[in-house]
Every structure is written in structure tokens, then in C-alpha cells.
Amino acid sequence: MQFVDLKSQYLRLETEIRAAIDKVLDHGQYIMGPEVAAFEQDMQTFSGVPYAIGVSSGTDALKMVLMAKGIGPGDAVIVPAFTFVATAEVVKILGATPIFCDVDARSFNIDTDCLQILIEKVHNQTDLHLKGIMPVDLFGLPANYEAILEIAKAHDLFVLGDAAQSFGGAINEKRVGALCDVSATSFFPAKPLGCYGDGGAVFTHDKNLYDIIKSIQFHGKGENQYDNVRIGITGRLDTLQAAILRCKIKVLGDEIGSRQSVADRYTQALSEHVITPMHYSGYQSAWAQYTIRTDKRDAIKAHLQSLGIPTAIYYPCPLHEQPAYMSPYNDLMPLPIAKQLSKEVLSLPMHPYLSPQQQQDISSAIVDALAL
Ligand SMILES: *Cc1c(COP(=O)(O)O)cnc(C)c1O
User: By the 8 A CB rule, do 102 and 81 touch?
Assistant: First the structure.
């Protein structure tokens, strides 16, 4: 059994993907070939966002937005303490300070009550210039953007959505990418929409921000690539990856439906035994992960492993306890939920091609492990 089964999806799309790759090999425009612009169009249509930019990775997507916002030393950006390291890493790379906020124990996403208190504390107890908030749509579930945007507006902060795990998700029919002014996603192979290497995208409603990021992703180009008007990076999406993603985005909606069915079956089998993900009315998760909580986490993981069932712990350590992220600012507020989750979470095999029989085996093994 596999944790994420990329092969089944490949076999479903094999003819199309091979033809798309062949086409790129024929025209040979490996950098910024026509597939890149065509895929950007596909993303705009899918998400309903006016501007989508294909970029080199999810991390670079986040980093380029912060560069475009002029984030640097002396600035602070609030990020959840329970997320993949890249969310905080990009803030540090630019010399700014990530300020960690606790998360909600059921949604795994940023806790908006903590967020409000934390903003006051940064203003009153530090000399940092608080510039923005980076909510994360953890495990595919969109963050509570309605509340976050209201708080951000009251304090004149930008909101950069880390949608690396949630492309394909939605809130009340509004798709991820459109949920805040600017968001970033990842096409790392194991994400809900993955390519065959590294890739990512930025989505925005802001034409000016779009123009700046287009420049940053190509060494800060102006009129052309030998006209350098700002500091940039190599931040482009490869043509080959765009060609592959064009095939895959066509089945993304269908695959999200399958992921939802997988999630529903897990919840039905497991909700009386462990804490299963909560349903939030109007929210569609992209189900990047199906993550349970239990104080018997390590015993369950070991039992499943002995049966050849792979699981993963996302994430075993909250960011404020990571050696590279130690900081006196981590003491502004206690972060008990992030800490507790790191000890209790377990992500189960999740992909659109998981069979009901496989799921039954996984669920039975979990129930058995609890009785040991
Ligand atoms: C995967 C991920 C990223 C980084 O994406 P890459 O494409 O691997 O650089 C950033 N944030 C979160 C929450 C992620 O899960």
C-alpha cells in the first residue's frame, strides 16, 4: 500500500501526458514555452482569479510575494506555529521575523482569537514592524479567511494565503486562490495537484503585484531580461511541468470529489475511536491529508507499519521549538495547541485512487491497535 499513489493517476492520464511531453520536446522551448501561459490561463479559469503565475516551487511563490511586498529586516509576519517549515522559512530568508500564532485544535488552522491578541502584543511589546499574516490551509482545509481578513483590515496588514496544500479546495463555491488578495500554492508531486518535479503558483487580484512578481521571477527584468529594474530570482515554472499540469488540472475537480469520498469513508469508520477531521459548513477541503488525533498515536503508527500500512506525522515538532526558529519573540504567547497536536496527529494514506477495501483494512488495523 502507498501513502500517496501517483502511479494510478499517471496510468489514467498516460496517453495525454506522454503526448504533452513529446510536444515540448518537439518545439524545444523549455523555458517560458507556450504551455506555461496556457497553464496560467487554465489556473485562472479553474480558480476564478484574474492573475495566476506559474513559478518554480511553493516556497519560491511565498518568497516572491514577500519580496514584492518589500519585507525585510525589522519587519514581522505572523505565521501559524503548526505548519510545514517553508511558511516561516521565507520570512527568515528575507531577514524578517516570523511571529508564531497558535492554531485551532479541530481545524488545525490559525486560531483567530490568538491572532488578535498576538497582534496587540507585537504592537505593544516589540519594536518590530508588523506587516502581514500568512494563514495556512493545513491539510487542504481553507483557513477562516472571513475572520482573518477582517482582523487584517483593522490593523492594516496584508494577508498572504499559504495554499500549498489546498489548491482545489473552496469556501462557499469560491475556490482557493480567490479567498484572499494573494495566495501561493505548490505543485510538489504529493500535493493535491502535483507535477513531476518542483513547481508552484501565485494567485492575485492585484495587477500591480502581478507585474512585480512576473519581473521578480525573471531576475527583476524590466522591458526585457537584460534590463534589470529590481532584485529578482530564477522563479519560473518549467515548460515541461506546465505541460504535465495542463493534463492533470483537467481531472482535479473529479479527484477532489474522490478524495472527499475517501475522507467520508474514513470518518464513518473511525469517528467513534479517534478524533477525526471536523466538517465545516460551506468549506471544501482539498484533502491533501486525512489527519486523525489520538493519544495512542505512536502505538497505532507502529501497528500499522507492522502490517505494511504507511502513515506520516505532519508535523512532529511545532516551529517555535525548531532549533533554527528559536527566538525571544516565541515567548510572546504560549502555543499549547501546536505542541499538543505535534504529539497526537497521524496522517493516513490519502489519494483519489484509494479503494474502499484498502480503507477498511486501514480502519480495522487502527481499531485493533487501540485494543492492544
Ligand atoms: C509543501 C508546502 C510548502 C512548500 O512547497 P514547495 O513546492 O515544496 O516549495 C509551503 N507551505 C506548506 C504549508 C506546504 O505544505
Answer: yes
113, with CB counted inside 10 A (0-12, 13-18, 19+), is exposed
Least trusted range by pLDDT, from 72-76, 80-84, 225-229, 294-298: 225-229
The identity of residue 300, as a single letter, is: I
Instruction: Give the binding-site residues of ligand 1, using a 6 Å CB cut-off.
Output: 57-59, 83-84, 86-87, 136, 162, 164-165, 186, 188, 198, 200
Give me the residue label for grid cell 477582517. 150
Q: Which three cell numbers stand for residue 120?
A: 496587540
177-203 per-position pLDDT tens digit: 999 999 999 999 999 999 999 999 999
Element counts in the chain: helices (H) and strands (E): 12, 12
The per-residue pLDDT for range 246-288, each reduced to its tens digit, is 999 999 999 999 999 999 999 999 999 999 999 999 999 999 9
Instruction: DSSP for 104-136, please give it.
Output: -TTT-SBPHHHHHHHHHHHHHH---EEEEE--B
Nearest CA to ligand 1 atom 2: 164
**Phi, psi for 109 (deg, rounded to 5):** -100, 170
- Residue 52, classed as helix, strand or coil, is strand
* Cα dihedral value 211, 213, 217, 218, nearest 10: 30
Please check whether residue 103 is in contact with residue 123, taking contact to mean a CB–CB distance below 8 angstroms.
no
